[in-house]
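Page 47, continued from p. 46.
Same chain as before, 318 aa.
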Amino acid sequence: MRDNEIEPNRASNKDLFEIWSFDGKLVYENIIRATEDFNDKHCIAAGGYGTVYRAELPSGQVVAVKKYPPSQDGELANLVSFMSEIHALTEIRHRHIIRLLGYCSHPRHSFLVYEFLEGGSLDKKLSCEEEALSLDWDKRINVVKGLADALSYMHHGCSPLVIHRDISSKNVLLNLEDVAYLFDFGTARLLNLQSSNWTSFAGTLGYAAPELAYTMEVNEKLDVYSFGVLTLEVVMGRHPGDLMSSLSSSSLDSSPPSSYGILFKDVLDKRLPLPRNQEEEAVVLAVKIALACLHPNPQCRPTMQQVSVALSNLLPPR
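Result:
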């Protein structure tokens, strides 16, 4: 067991952070017991790199535990992903990025432990009729603003800079106030700007930048493209696959985002009332920024710092 740096004002004498520092074995046993040895009934999410469980510790504290599957010989099957997530999340700390509390590499179970967010994933929220209605325009804009701020910090405020490489609605978690947190850094890369950064494909189909079809170079423009897709999804209430197909067939290379010929009302989630006044201004700007992020030429996409600044003066957070 290892512990991360914990901000002094976020630790107390009786919570997980204090225990983690002095008795990792006890925490390990408590997590095994809380999940009933990772029983499916405690599973809250599953992905390509691991399964996430809800665990309530004896103190009453609830945490999220991401368990990595072992290979047939008992070794950690996704060691690179496991280490990538640890390295990325020990380098960064931001109010819109999930907090890693600790991790365990054990012959029987290897897992990461995070703060638990009660709101669940953004994709589930948008796909549920009742929950999508509770995610009004103000909240949706604040989701976009929060994620833009987090990515701006990762791309411009970290050394080395961090590329997530798998921005999607399933990797955005919400708390009970619908504040967004970026999650799942299993494919993240810390970039060495003094050398080339090449890799195999990583990401989620439908969110990955088109240049990955012919180059495997890792750079921040990959995240910018995925952020554009995600922003349209937040506005539309569904993945913008059909819209993106029509855009890609319209020879956008020479077209500025404002000339794409898209009717504003056609990209709004019809489950919500039409945005008015400040809301409308904010949503229009979010759509324009999203389209700029989807430019087929990576060099023509804005930086996340530019995006974050453009969004910063919109609706105040709730």
